[in-house]
Every structure is written in C-alpha cells, then in structure tokens.
Amino acid sequence: MELNPTHDPSARSWLASANNPQADFPIQNLPFAVFRRRASQEAFRGGIAIGDQVIDLAALHQAGVLTGLAAQGLAACTGDSLNPFMAMRPAIWSALRRAVFDGLLADANGPEAATLRASLVPLAKVEYQVPARIGDYTDFYTSIHHARNVGRVIRPEDPLTPNFQWIPIAYHGRASSVVISDTPFHRPMGQAMPPGARAPVYGASQRMDYELEMGIYIGAGNTQGQAIPLTEAESHIFGMCLLNDWSARDHQFWEMAPLGPFLGKNFCTTVSPWIVTMEALVPFRVPFSHPADEPQPLPYLDTPANSAQGGVDVQLEVRLETAQHRARGVAPDRLSATSFRHQYWTIAQMVTQHTVGGCNLQTGDLLGTGTISGPTAEEAGAIVELSLGGSRSISLPGTGEQRTFLEDGDAVILRGWCEKPGAVRIGFGECKGELLPAVGD
Amino acid sequence: MELNPTHDPSARSWLASANNPQADFPIQNLPFAVFRRRASQEAFRGGIAIGDQVIDLAALHQAGVLTGLAAQGLAACTGDSLNPFMAMRPAIWSALRRAVFDGLLADANGPEAATLRASLVPLAKVEYQVPARIGDYTDFYTSIHHARNVGRVIRPEDPLTPNFQWIPIAYHGRASSVVISDTPFHRPMGQAMPPGARAPVYGASQRMDYELEMGIYIGAGNTQGQAIPLTEAESHIFGMCLLNDWSARDHQFWEMAPLGPFLGKNFCTTVSPWIVTMEALVPFRVPFSHPADEPQPLPYLDTPANSAQGGVDVQLEVRLETAQHRARGVAPDRLSATSFRHQYWTIAQMVTQHTVGGCNLQTGDLLGTGTISGPTAEEAGAIVELSLGGSRSISLPGTGEQRTFLEDGDAVILRGWCEKPGAVRIGFGECKGELLPAVGD
C-alpha cells in the first residue's frame, strides 16, 4: 500500500504551533468540528484544527481556491452541521484533508497557503456545537473489563452475562440530550431504591458517575433492511471523538430491570468538539483478535481482513477538577488512564452488529463504545469501578479531597491521544463537563 | 367547563360520508396526517381526515380564507412534516381544528365551506409518510397485564420486576426505523441462543411477533434540565396514533441482558398515518387510579387533577391477514381485542417520568405506550402472550391455519376507535405491516 503523505512523520507546517511534538493538532491530524467565535452572533460553520488555530471552512470555501473533489467536500462544510460532508464518500473526505494538508506544508507557497493563513481563527477564541445532527445515538458495551468490574458489583456470582463474548451488546441512548464539551448540567432527580428499603425514594441522585467512552460518527448510512457486512463497515465511519456517558447509578440500577438504562443515562451525554478522521488514525491501528481460549466470533462478525487491524490504540485519561482545584488554582487530578486497544469488540463489529437485523444507520448517527476500562483496576473508566461500588474512597492528591461518587461542582475532563515510535502524536482535544446542583431538590 | 362545540354529538357535516355512524373520521374527530396523491410526484403536505376524504391543508392555506390563530396554524401544516404545527401552543391546534369543524358543518355556507370542498382529496387515492420528524423514539412498558404475561414466560417465579408499580418503565427505541403503515419489512437476521445450546446460532428470527401499542406525539418540548410537572404534562402532547413495535423474540431474549432490547426491536416500528388530537379524545377520558391494594404513586407522579381523568378508553383490536387470506379473499382473522383504559400508567405520567431527570423532549418525539394487554388472556397484545411463549397454537378460523409466531407473508392490522353512549364514534384508522422473507438467509 502506498504511504499516504498525510501520515509522513517528517511533514512540518508553516504554522509553528502545529510542529510542537506535544500538540494535539499537528499537520498529520486535521480533525473536524463546528465552531464560531466565542460570544459572537456568527453562524456556526465547519472548521479543521491545526496547531493552536482553526481553519474557517466557510471562509476557505468563499475564497474559492480549492478545486475538484476537495472543493466539493469543502462546500459541504460551510453549514452548522457536518452532515452534508459526512454523507459524502470517503474519497471526498480524503481529498479535502489532503488539499488542506498540502496548503499547510512548510514549503507550500501557492494561493492555497495564503488563503489558509487568512482563514485561521485562534482556538482560544472559539466555541463549538455538536458537530452533527445526530439522528440516533446508540451506546455499546464493548469493554470486557468494564463489564466484569460492573458485573461484580451487581451480580457477584456471574459478572459477565453469557452473551457478552458473542455479541457487541448495545442499547439505544438519547440523542436529544447529547451536548458539546463545556456544557454544564444538573444532577438529575429521580427514583432510587435504597438498600433494604421497602419503597423507593424520590430525590437527587446520590451516586453520580462518568463513563470514559469514545464516540463514532457514521458517514454514509444503509438502507433499512440491508445489513453492512464487516468488510465494508469502516467505510461507513467518518471519525471518532471522546464521549462521556454520565450516569446516575442509583436511578439506573433501580430502573433497568428488565428493559435497560433510561433516566439513569438520558439527562446528559457530552461529546468533544473535534472528530478525528479514520484516515488520521491509520498509523495507530493495531491487530485484533479474541483470545484463543475465549469464544471466537460467529462468521458474520469475523473476517481475516478485519482482524488484521481491527483495534485502535488511543491513549485515554480521566481527570477530575473539583471546586477546590479551581479555587486553589491546582491542576485537575488524574483518576485513571487506559487505551482503547483493550476493547473486546472492534468499531467495525459494532457497525455490522447494529445493522445485521436491518436497522438503518443514518449520516451523523453517534455510536458510543461503552465505558473503556483496561485490564487492571487502575485502568477503570468509571468511578463506580474505581470506588468498588462506592465502598472505597478515592483520594485526590491535588486538594486532599476524597470521592466515592461525583459531587456538585466536580468537572470531569477526558483526554485522548495516539502516539508511537515513528509517528507524530495526534490528539482528540478534551471532553469536559461540570455537574451542577440538582434543580428542585 | 363549557362544552367544546367539536364534541357536540349532534353535529353533522355537509359531507355525507362523515355522518356514517361507523366512520372513523366524523366531524368530531379531524385527525392530522402527512399525505400526497398515491404514486404521484407531489410534495407531501399536511391533511385532515373527514369522512372518506382528506382536506389538503396546503391547498386550504393557498386559498387564504382562514384568519387569526387558525390561519397561523394552517400555515404550519403545509410542509412534509407536522413539526412546525406541533411546536405551536394548544390554543393554535384548537383554533385550526375549530375553523375546519365550522366550515364542515352541515349548515356552513361561507367561503370556508366552499374552499374546504375544493380542497378534498379521496382517502382512497392517497399515500402517507411518517407525519413528524421524530427526533427520539421512546418505548414504555405500562401494561401490568403484558408485564405479567411476558414475565411468566421468562421469570415464572417472579413475573413482575419490583420497579413496575413505582416507575412507568421505558427504554429508548430506534427513531430511524419508524415507518408508516403499509410499509413491508424483512424478517431480521441475528443471533439467538437455542434452548440447551452451548453457542448461539446466526439466522433469520424464528419467533417473530407484533406488539399492539399506541403512539404519543410530543408537541412543545422542554428545556434540558427542566422537568415537566404532571399537571402540565398533557399540554405537551399533540395527539395519539396506533403503533406496532415488531419484535424478534429469540434475538431479543438472547441480547437483552443486561442492557435491554436492541436488535430484537430496532429493525422496524410501524405507525398509523393519522394522529388523533387530545382534544378529539376528551369525551373518551376515564377516571384513573391505582388499585388500593397496590403501591400508590410517589407524589411527583400522583396528583388529584390527573387521576380524575388520566385514562383514555380507546378500543383496540389486532387482526392477522396471511397469504392464504389474501389468496382466498377471506377477511383477516381477529387475534385479540382490548382497551387502552387498562394501562397501569397514564400518558401524563409517561411524559413526567421521561423528563424528571432533566431529559429534554423535542417536538415530534414519539412515545410508545408499550404492549397493551387487557386483564384477560384473550386481551393480550402480542402473539408471544397468546401462544404462551410459542407453546400453544392459535387457530385462524378464516383459513384453518395455525400460528405460534408470525410467518412470512403475514400482515398484522391494528385498529383503534372510541365509542360510548352519547358520543359519536371516532377512529384511528389502521396500522398495517407485512412481514417479508429474510434477506440473505
């Protein structure tokens, strides 16, 4: 396979901030978002991140210097959602990314470079909205470590349900309450059944949790009744982001038999602004297979082509910023770190399983991966796992505070990045949300 | 309370077909749909049913004879979804319905009547689409009889989960695969775990079922984080329809632990074209309370104002039309009949529960009531209940066939209507779908 020039680790940009080896957005990344200048009345439009800047794609389109497929793609990035662009074929996604890459290269000196320079807006001055009109949001449950950790809390004798190793389990989530990073939300009211009680209580959740996840945006959808085979699944994926599936564990555990989570999850789900394309992730793909001593996937979920590079090695971390951290100017404490490469099921398997019965995915649909917990206890992606169901306090070294669940004023910050020898580090930016006190408690 | 003239049982229309006492669409009903002439290239637009005709609301708007609130409402009914109209306040819904009612009255002779007459299209010549852009679809589980019937199949020792009498249980469904009546769909492929097997099998569902439900369309939504109190819940409901939540029971039972139904439900959900407004249903409201020997609702789900008329007495029936019925020209066989008045939770309680944690409903969102099964075995709203989990055959008198689950070519027809002494019967039309053979089996 020919090397894609956008993966060349020696490529540098004329924009100095893009060449910082710790930058999330070097010239090898070029993720997409929908943005405008903060506190302005400007229309939201598409943007591509580079270094500490955003390329304003509406301005770039207006300048009219791109041609061919790249120009077609660019014209679809000028509105307040990326759906028109996401609906296009991967060759167009690729052409636009390549044209922007070429114009940003250190030795670029044509009209594209000048126009790109004129289209830059500092990242520090922008705000974002959810980058797609999300028709449906589906949340998977694909970390075997998370499934075992949580299962031990509620079903100690049998933590893993028998279907886990056969099915990428999923449930439908709530699309309307997906919000962009930095949107605070209120602690939810609802019913919980206290241990040993005879009747449930109504009140603010006492067991507030986050869930470290990644999000997958669908590009082209499928016709209802027509499944997407595994070999084609990744061509339907536009890119990935960070996702926090906030959870009210007390409400969730009381309501979820027999039909699954509902109010325990649907009050808020936070996504990061930037969508990293599948093309940018190519250098960080890893081989994937189920352990030989575990059930092997049924044929429709198992192809050699896929298992050769089914995983994605995205480093992930969760940090907690309490009101005390902010008051004292202390950096947020790290709660855990892991990698997305540990998932039991791949993103292609998720797409194929979702459509195998004929369910139609649509452009802009969001799939959550489910909580990402790694193999060791320290790699858990939810506080209910770290605190063993609330039975153990977690110390925050920065402030000396303790936590079993989240408290009002706590902000959770997810970060993700890919790095390995011989490749330039690329990052996902951050996904942050702050828990406000309950309304009407 | 002043009598709403549209509820006057003595009202008659100049359109003779509207005065048939068995008609679904007398002048007292006036439900809304989105339609166009069948097999035409016309734009879909709003319509109101009267007798055997549809009032073309785009044509009526064009004529410009309505004024005030009614004209405001009418202008919002000309596009290919009713969302702009549903987003308006109930006074506008009411004003448009009243203006149309007045113009259809037997003694109406102004320009409104002439214009209405000129806007009629025969029901027999139209086709429909889903009348709203559905942001999210939620399915409830509010029939205690259904919950007990199904629970006995999978949890004989404890059929009702402990939360049922405290929570209007719900889960998120799939909005993208909601289709309009008369849209056939394919038997889904997927995984099932046969009894006693050590590994699941992949194939077409062997336990295909329907679910008799009603659908509720949301009018005005709520802001994320702001719950809708019970006393205001019904003002957020635009109207109701019939809904068939097709289910692949073998796939569903294998996948649903621990996160609920997913592929077992998301391949297709069918809705009827006509939305009967809450105003038209006023004469058929019934008092509602939980039995004294069962837990009483927590205060946020229980107000005197609501329990006075929380129920809706909609008569419902399920008919099965097999390929044999069609080949022989035999009428479909009735499988069961019941009433919506038996539900354990009200539609207002569903809306309030959905939002109590801060989840935002949006205009056009669809809530399913869950399978509607009455108190006796004959009133069951799903074939898995009628056939006792597939252990008993159901005879179809019309053709002499037998069924335990649905077979390819079977069409299920749901019908609903309201009738009582002193009121004119109103109907919901029908909700029909045919099961086609699996693709790729």
From TrEMBL, chains A, B:
Domain Fumarylacetoacetase-like C-terminal: 138-416
Residues annotated as binding Mg(2+): D245, K265, T269
Swiss-Prot/TrEMBL cofactor(s): Mg(2+); Ca(2+)
GO BP term, pick one: L-tyrosine catabolic process
A Pfam family recorded for this sequence: FAA_hydrolase
Assigned keywords, A-Z: Calcium, Hydrolase, Magnesium, Metal-binding, Phenylalanine catabolism, Tyrosine catabolism
GO molecular function terms attached to this record: fumarylacetoacetase activity; metal ion binding
Tree of life domain: Bacteria
Active site: H146
Annotated EC: 3.7.1.2
Binding positions (substrate): Y141, R155, Q252, T371
Residue span(s) of domain Fumarylacetoacetase N-terminal: 28-131
Residues bound to Ca(2+): D139, E211, E213, D245
The protein, known as: fumarylacetoacetase
Organism: Hydrogenophaga crassostreae
